[in-house]
Design goal:
The chain is α+β, with helices and mostly antiparallel strands. The protein has one domain. The chain contains 1 helix and 2 strands. The chain has a two-stranded antiparallel sheet with strand order 1-2. It is elongated, with a radius of gyration of 16 Å. The two termini are 14 Å apart.
């Protein structure tokens, strides 16, 4: 990407991921549904728009 920002960082890479559904541990059925969702959206780039976490790699300029 290589875009400059006002903070002096260049964006090298941005990834989207879906983390473990710890917020659904209120019961085992909800956690299992959340785990299935997490595996589904992380399985292919087709579902990348549904991932919730951003991980960025920045370079100080």
């Amino acid at each position: 990407m290589g875009r400059n920002t006002q903070a002096g960082f260049a964006v090298e890479k941005i990834d989207r991921i879906e983390g473990r559904p710890e917020y659904l541990r209120i019961s085992w059925p909800t956690y299992l549904l959340g785990a299935a969702y997490e595996r589904l959206v992380n399985s292919t780039e087709w579902f990348a728009a549904f991932r919730i976490l951003l991980v960025a790699e920045l370079r100080k300029q």
